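Internal ticket #5521
Category: modeling
Description: The requester needs a full-assembly model to guide mutagenesis choices. All entity lines are attached below as received. Residue total reported by intake: 401.
Assigned to: D.W.
Attached entities:
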Amino acid sequence: MTSRWRDVAHATGLLADDGTPRATIFAEMSALAVRTGAINLGQGFPDVDGPASVADAARAAIADGANQYPPGPGIPALRHAIADHQRRHYGLVVDPDREVLVTTGATEALAAAVLALVGPADEVLTLEPFYDSYAAVIAMAGATHTTAPLAATPDGFRLDEAALTAAFTDRTRLVLLNTPHNPTGTVLTPDELAVVARLARQHDAIVVTDEVYEHLTFGVPHVPIATLADMAERTLTISSAGKTLSFTGWKVGWVHGPAHLVDAVRTVKQFLTYVSGAPFQPAVAFALGDPGVQAWVDELAASLARRRDLLCDGLTAAGFDVVRPDGTYFVLADASRLGHGDGAALCRDLPSLAGVVGVPVSAFTRAGSSADSALASWVRFTFVKRDEVLHEAVARLQRLA
Ligand SMILES: *Cc1c(COP(=O)(O)O)cnc(C)c1O
């Protein structure tokens, strides 16, 4: 008998030597922060909520009775708002009735897409490091996880064409892309996306792209791979309200793409959660179409760029080598110049050394991979915290220098 949870725990590095599952490094580090009073720059959630007008819209929806099961694909107003958003920002033409599915966060969209589209004979190719849920859902599907590294260069963490080419095989059924990328903060360039697109077409692979940080870029444009020639027909694009609106607890996400692929995802989604967040759907529909909210999101991105610089400068002064990210909430910092070769060990010591908590990048790599060894001494820190919190964290980090 096979127990799929063991595959999941194994794939995510969460199976202890005695065969029991253990807590994720995120949970361990957050508990450590609470226990020690350290500043938690580990888990990436904002410490300021999103726009009041959007919260008011959710409250109004509850008062107006949006409290029972909404339609399975999502309420029409939200599906239309998602399609309009894609046309306005990227020129993508999306049919709100046949090509959009509302999900319980991007997390469910990712899980339903992978479970719908791959099985034990298939390979799913991701970048590495990768968002931790990818390895888990690939294991749930019984598929094989392959990776192509993002490597630190003077131009940021970049995708190596030769490594990507080598990672594709005849069994690559799905490419699970992520741009802007967590944890590196890389925003893939049109040239990098063109290489992914060419290889996906050549191997007849479907692309599932996680674009939850689409609006949180710093002076470089986010390009959805679905906008590249001949790619819309083989791409499922996933995003979510959580990061864009600073309401990470609302868990309203969506996926759009060709009707036959969205049908496949919906077939699985309806038996995972059936429907998603009734009163939050009209609130997110309002948010996606409202110019005032868009201005708020633009200001969030501008303030994140400033906070990125504050944290990057502080980490550099403390003796880390940082790669300045072009998007997301996160910066990766190499501790090797400080004499720390093991990022996980450093993270366990960081509260006592400097009163700060981060997450080792090994939480986003596979044991034994080339990316895993290249990034062994790296730590991820978030800068989606208030200025005064970051100033205090930076001051404390100078104890390391
Ligand atoms: C936060 C995050 C998600 C999860 O999004 P939800 O809408 O909260 O489910 C997915 N992918 C990446 C890369 C993330 O950082």
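Resolution: model delivered.
Comment from assignee: The CA atoms of residues 85 and 288 lie 7 Å apart.
Ticket closed.
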